[in-house]
Amino acid sequence: MRMAEPGNTDRNKQLNRSLVLNIIHKNGPITKAEISKELELTFATIGNITSELIETGAIKVTGYGQSNGGRKPALYEINWENNYVIALDVGVTKISAAIVNLKAEIHARCDVEMENSQYDLTFIERVFKAIDQLLSRTDLSHLKIIGIGVSAPGPIDEESGKLLSLPNLQEGRNVTIKQQLEQRYGLMTVLEKDANAAALAEQWFSNMQMKENILYIFADQGIGGGLIIDTRIYRGFHNGAGEIGHMSIDVDGPRCNCGNFGCLEAMASGISVIKQVKKEIRRGASSSLAEIYLQDEKQLTLDLIIQHGKNGDPLVKNVLDQTGRYLGIGVANAINFFSPSQVIFGGQMIDLYPEIVKIAERTAKPRFFSDAASRINFTNSSFGFDASLIGAAAIIQQKLFDKPENTIIK
Ligand SMILES: [Zn+2]
């Protein structure tokens, strides 16, 4: 473990606090003497830090340990339940806002659809509407809100807190969402790409806690990827990492939203499933969806298509099988390059059709180069439809553990 030198500089203090919080998270309930031994920091230093963390509300005393003759030592734990976060998930079809505690339990939520009737509101007005409605429905008197976590499809600039473009909205370029939320609500706000946020949620809140290297595949209307390396999000140069959706799968493949041809997103995303089913129906393929398509093609949502696939529609089944195989090829490429210990699949495609992960796994495994890769776990996200919303809460949790002084609660 990385140790901070005992000292008085702000940087060391910050690192020490973060180390203490992490040890309490990992090993709590735990005494000051045990923390001091584990971190090789003096008892006095640990005493100062635990007092500060108690004051901020980040930790609490939950009991007393065995005495060695003197007073019984206090046992410290993270104050999970009493610290809440406003989690905001910007999706393609809706904005979801929720009040979530640091155990990923949703206390209240509010969704605002991106439907036409609301196009008179700007994007940021819709975000405010979701949060304002959430707050108006919640009794905040006994809750401590420590920040706002925002999860959004890329591209984003995490450092300046800007959404560089918005899904399906013409107006959106360089939206300063972090700054505007901080101004309006007076709460620390952190922005993260949805796939990274969902990967963090698995790391912090699922039973698979603290996996060191995670590849998260967010298979939704589009396809995103999140990377956690040595327990930290890997962003790459200018937040460019993780774009598995734009990995080339077929040089002669269909055109992707990004302008290239044959990207994984153009061949294995929710949007590509819808496109392929419509194309085959136009070509005369037999399908239980043909009549609905002819009446009103807008009714062919991913949800409806997958329902028909589950009911045995041969066209949809073929498209989904092929989609799973492409997904597997994309994942095999990523695994051979990055060798994660865990691959987690989330997003609407996975929630609606979890079996697709098995197809992807069967396709990927024979393509692994390293023998060790056969031991990599393929799993479905623990949080289903709420993966990126819970991820928005995990962003703040990560921040609390990294820089607790940012989240001091009054
Ligand atoms: Zn692309």
Give the helices and strands, then pairings.
Layout: H1 10-27, H2 32-39, H3 43-56, E1 59-64, E2 74-78, E3 83-90, E4 94-101, E5 106-113, H4 123-136, E6 144-152, E7 156-157, E8 162-165, E9 173-175, H5 177-185, E10 189-193, H6 194-205, E11 214-219, E12 223-229, E13 232-233, H7 264-268, H8 270-282, H9 290-295, H10 302-310, H11 314-338, E14 342-346, H12 348-352, H13 356-364, E15 377-380, H14 387-402
Parallel strand pairs: 3-6, 6-10, 11-14, 14-15
Antiparallel strand pairs: 1-2, 3-4, 4-5, 7-8, 8-9, 11-12, 12-13
Helix pairs in contact: 1-3, 2-3, 6-14, 8-11, 10-11, 11-13
The chain binds zinc ion.
Structural description of this entry:
- This protein has 410 residues and is of the alpha/beta class.
- The protein has three domains: 10-78, Arc Repressor Mutant, subunit A; 83-201 and 388-407, Nucleotidyltransferase, domain 5; 208-381, Nucleotidyltransferase, domain 5 (2-Layer Sandwich).
- It has 14 helices and 15 strands.
- It has helices at 10-27, 32-39, 43-56, 123-136, 177-185, 194-205, 264-268, 270-282, 290-295, 302-310, 314-338, 348-352, 356-364, 387-402, and strands at residues 59-64, 74-78, 83-90, 94-101, 106-113, 144-152, 156-157, 162-165, 173-175, 189-193, 214-219, 223-229, 232-233, 342-346, 377-380.
- The strands form four sheets. Strands 5-4-3-6-10 form a five-stranded mixed β-sheet, with helices on both faces.
- Strand 4 (94-101) and strand 5 (106-113) form a beta hairpin.
- Helix 6 crosses helix 14 and helix 8 (270-282) runs antiparallel to helix 11 (314-338).
- The radius of gyration is 23 Å and the shape is globular.
- The chain binds zinc ion.
- The site of zinc ion (ZN) has 6 residues, from loops.
